[in-house]
């Protein structure tokens, strides 16, 4: 069995960083990354991006050395992706924050509202309902992160955690402040409005959960295969007929429901910003589906049926 | 009797449709060229030309052997020097005829092989005279003259000579070029609204220019008359015209949006919205702000910049460039933009306390939207955005300046 030699150069300076000899032809990029870490411990595998060209595409961990267009001496170019943090860590942090922050405002912890309101409860029923819905939403997200989602990438750059947490925590505090304020004004159409909003909210929460489960079942444990998602027996997944990313659609729907329920402008703004961001993600995902699969259903739109 | 007319060298070439005759005479004065009965008659006065031919009424003895077969004048010249002199039995015949100081009269006649149009076209240059004759029918002639023997003064013009097949190819190429040109022209869509658009832009820029010059002149005159006191009621007198001009300036965004004008959208949006915000919201809604001195400076700086900008646009719409104006338009912003920005910042800073005291445009709890809006806080954020916007516009204007006033590599926009 012929062994390969692997040489790793820095993509920017072209200096030789590492030379590995006697590498098995069946070795995967992941194993090569592990070997590279041994010589440079500060660059753990998640931080490494190995490519065939200095400005080329990053090689995947599953790629086998033998299948790559390299000779018996393979040259890889290395780029440092910067400090990485796992997706699970990021998600848990960014969802735990709003959960706790909202509760701080709900219980009117000192220094948030005037001293005469400390630890008092709001006299409106809708405020208690809103707290329940908000907390339910974030608990659901935390549980999904732990038990449902299968991530394509293990890590993301470290600076993302600061960006994401600022966004989630900041908006949560801003919303919670007004909803739990002593001078809060309940919805103009009273109970009718609240009931309708609650129905919408619950419907979309269930839908969102169903999509997450359906996506999980597409991909066996530990694999990173990509397949076209299709509607299943669950009626909530029938939105797959019209939309590529129904999880985003349901998410926007939930927040619209929450806005109507609380009739609070900061919530509306949060929904709007979230919609814009998710629309961008959905467009990207839709495009990559179209690129990857020839027989992708043509009826589907990225996020809003027939429109967007 | 001796006929002392001299024959010039004539070189000829043909195409399917026309004949070219090149008469080798320097500085021909008042040439007389005409065609009658299919005969071209030439008569002209010129200084002695190199290597001219002599001729005489009687037929020349074959010994005088000059230009008959060799077309190249230089060769002929040499030969001429070496040629034996003609027998001197005809005393009026001269070999080279240098002796003639000053001008001589040159004449020749050619009877054409086939019918030609009786309108020859002459072009006189310092060294020769070109005659172009149109053939009546398009054909290829085997010789120029009706007589079979070629006249001694006539020779082929190798510079313009083409064989029949080459001439055909040349014709074909010309046809193709014409077809291509028509194709290209039909591809570029002619804009039916071009004049309308131009007229509208010129009118818009003119109206704005008039508006701002009214403002500028009015403010200057009042400054001279009232001095510092004019600062305090500037708004009162000028505001209506300024409202009008700045509202009209919204058209600039529209123009950029629909592509009527080629300038980019974002600097236009920043400028128009920035100014209108200060004018309508900060100044317009607060009585207290309207009597502040900063208003004078603000309006003055705005109007000076516009005094250069709008005429420049107007002239460029009409295709005229007045260099001093171009320079002014692309240089005056350097002092005026920062000063204008500073004046706007002072307006904002002075207005923030007023907004927080009066609570104008602010929303407090309780309210149905369950939100609080502190307008003074928003203004503080806007102050930061103001400097960012100024910076973006600076960069854009600097780039424009380099483009228009820098090394003249590109054409004006």
TrEMBL record, chain A:
Enzyme class: oxidoreductase
Function per UniProt: Involved in both the production of very long-chain fatty acids for sphingolipid synthesis and the degradation of the sphingosine moiety in sphingolipids through the sphingosine 1-phosphate metabolic pathway. Catalyzes the last of the four reactions of the long-chain fatty acids elongation cycle. This endoplasmic reticulum-bound enzymatic process, allows the addition of 2 carbons to the chain of long- and very long-chain fatty acids/VLCFAs per cycle.
Keyword Chaperone: no
Superkingdom in the source lineage: Eukaryota
Subcellular location: Endoplasmic reticulum membrane
Protein family per UniProt: Belongs to the steroid 5-alpha reductase family.
Residue span(s) of domain 3-oxo-5-alpha-steroid 4-dehydrogenase C-terminal: 155-308
GO molecular function: very-long-chain enoyl-CoA reductase activity
Keyword Acetylation: yes
Signal peptide: none
Protein name stated in the entry: Very-long-chain enoyl-CoA reductase
GO biological process, one term: fatty acid biosynthetic process
Domain TECR-like N-terminal: 5-80
Taxonomic source organism: Gallus gallus
Automatic annotation (TrEMBL), chain B:
Pathway assigned in UniProt: Lipid metabolism; fatty acid biosynthesis
Domain of life: Eukaryota
GO cellular component, one term: endoplasmic reticulum membrane
Main location per the UniProt record: endoplasmic reticulum
Catalytic activity: a very-long-chain (3R)-3-hydroxyacyl-CoA = a very-long-chain (2E)-enoyl-CoA + H2O; (3R)-hydroxyhexadecanoyl-CoA = (2E)-hexadecenoyl-CoA + H2O
Compartments where located: Endoplasmic reticulum membrane
Annotated InterPro entries: CS_dom (IPR007052), HSP20-like_chaperone (IPR008978), Tyr_Pase-like_PTPLA (IPR007482)
Record keyword Lipid biosynthesis present: yes
TM region(s), chain numbering: 200-221, 241-261, 268-286, 292-312, 333-355, 375-398
Entry's EC annotation: 4.2.1.134
Keywords from the UniProt entry: Coiled coil, Endoplasmic reticulum, Fatty acid biosynthesis, Fatty acid metabolism, Lipid biosynthesis, Lipid metabolism, Lyase, Membrane, Transmembrane, Transmembrane helix
Function: Catalyzes the third of the four reactions of the long-chain fatty acids elongation cycle. This endoplasmic reticulum-bound enzymatic process, allows the addition of two carbons to the chain of long- and very long-chain fatty acids/VLCFAs per cycle. This enzyme catalyzes the dehydration of the 3-hydroxyacyl-CoA intermediate into trans-2,3-enoyl-CoA, within each cycle of fatty acid elongation. Thereby, it participates to the production of VLCFAs of different chain lengths that are involved in multiple biological processes as precursors of membrane lipids and lipid mediators.
PANTHER family per UniProt: VERY-LONG-CHAIN (3R)-3-HYDROXYACYL-COA DEHYDRATASE (PTHR11035), VERY-LONG-CHAIN (3R)-3-HYDROXYACYL-COA DEHYDRATASE 3 (PTHR11035:SF20)
Protein name: Very-long-chain (3R)-3-hydroxyacyl-CoA dehydratase
Gene: HACD3
């Amino acid at each position: 069995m012929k062994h390969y030699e692997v040489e790793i150069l820095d993509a920017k300076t072209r200096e030789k960083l590492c030379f590995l000899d006697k590498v098995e032809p069946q070795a995967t990029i992941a194993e090569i990354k592990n070997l590279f870490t041994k010589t440079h411990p500060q660059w753990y595998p998640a931080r490494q991006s190995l490519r065939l060209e200095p400005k080329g595409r990053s090689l995947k961990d599953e790629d086998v050395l033998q299948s790559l267009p390299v000779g018996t001496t393979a040259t890889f170019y290395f780029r440092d992706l910067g400090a990485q943090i796992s997706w699970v860590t990021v998600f848990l942090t960014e969802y735990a924050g709003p959960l706790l922050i909202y509760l701080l405002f709900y219980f009117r912890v000192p220094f948030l509202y005037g001293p005469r309101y400390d630890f008092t409860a709001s006299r409106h029923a809708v405020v208690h309902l809103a707290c329940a819905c908000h907390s339910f939403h974030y608990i659901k997200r935390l549980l999904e992160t732990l038990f449902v989602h299968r991530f394509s990438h293990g890590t993301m750059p470290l600076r993302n955690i600061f960006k994401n947490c600022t966004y989630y925590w900041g908006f949560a505090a801003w919303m919670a402040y007004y909803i739990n304020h002593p001078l809060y004004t309940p919805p103009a159409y009273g109970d009718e409005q609240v009931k309708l909003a609650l129905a919408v909210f619950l419907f979309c929460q269930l839908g969102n959960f169903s999509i997450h489960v359906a996506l999980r079942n597409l991909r066996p444990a530990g694999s990173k295969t990509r397949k076209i998602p299709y509607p299943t027996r669950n009626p909530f997944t029938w939105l797959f007929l019209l939309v590529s990313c129904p999880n985003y659609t349901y998410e926007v729907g939930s927040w619209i429901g929450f806005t109507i329920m609380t009739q609070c402008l900061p919530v509306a703004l949060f929904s709007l910003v979230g919609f814009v961001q998710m629309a961008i993600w959905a467009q990207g995902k839709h495009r990559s589906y179209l690129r990857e699969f020839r027989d992708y259903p043509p009826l589907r739109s990225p996020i809003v049926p027939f429109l967007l | 009797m001796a006929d002392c007319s001299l024959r010039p060298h004539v070189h000829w070439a043909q195409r399917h449709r026309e004949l070219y005759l090149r008469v080798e005479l320097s500085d021909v004065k008042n040439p007389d060229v005409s065609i009658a009965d299919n005969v071209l008659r030439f008569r002209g006065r010129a200084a002695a030309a190199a290597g001219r031919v002599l001729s005489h009424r009687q037929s020349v003895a074959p010994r005088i052997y000059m230009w008959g077969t060799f077309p190249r004048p230089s060769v002929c010249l040499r030969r001429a020097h070496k040629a034996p002199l003609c027998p001197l039995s005809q005393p009026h015949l001269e070999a080279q005829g240098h002796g003639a100081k000053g001008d001589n009269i040159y004449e020749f006649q050619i009877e054409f092989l086939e019918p030609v149009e009786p309108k020859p076209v002459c072009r006189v240059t310092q060294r020769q005279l070109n005659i172009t004759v149109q053939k009546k029918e398009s054909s290829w002639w085997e010789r120029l003259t009706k007589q079979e023997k070629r006249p001694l003064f006539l020779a082929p013009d190798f510079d313009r000579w083409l064989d029949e097949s080459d001439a055909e190819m040349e014709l074909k190429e010309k046809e193709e070029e014409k077809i291509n040109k028509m194709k290209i022209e039909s591809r570029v869509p002619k804009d039916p609204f071009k004049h309308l658009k131009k007229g509208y832009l010129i009118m818009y820029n003119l109206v704005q220019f008039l508006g701002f010059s009214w403002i500028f002149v009015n403010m200057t005159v009042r400054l001279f008359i009232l001095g510092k006191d004019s600062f305090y009621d500037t708004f009162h007198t000028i505001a209506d015209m300024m409202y009008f001009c700045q509202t009209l300036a919204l058209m600039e965004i529209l123009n950029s949006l629909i592509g009527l004008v080629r300038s980019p959208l974002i600097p236009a949006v920043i400028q128009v919205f920035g100014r209108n915000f200060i004018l309508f919201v900060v100044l317009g809604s607060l009585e207290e702000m309207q009597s502040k001195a900063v208003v004078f400076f603000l309006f003055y700086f705005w109007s000076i910049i516009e005094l250069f900008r709008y005429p420049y646009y107007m002239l460029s719409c009409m295709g005229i460039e007045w260099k001093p104006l171009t320079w002014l338009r692309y240089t005056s912003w350097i002092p005026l933009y920062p000063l204008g920005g500073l004046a706007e910042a002072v307006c904002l800073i002075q207005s923030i306390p007023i907004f927080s005291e009066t609570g104008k445009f602010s929303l407090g709890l309780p309210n149905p939207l369950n939100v609080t809006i502190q307008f003074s806080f928003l203004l503080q954020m806007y102050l930061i955005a103001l400097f960012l916007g100024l910076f973006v516009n600076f960069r854009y204007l600097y780039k424009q300046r380099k483009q228009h006033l820098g090394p003249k590599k590109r054409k004006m926009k």
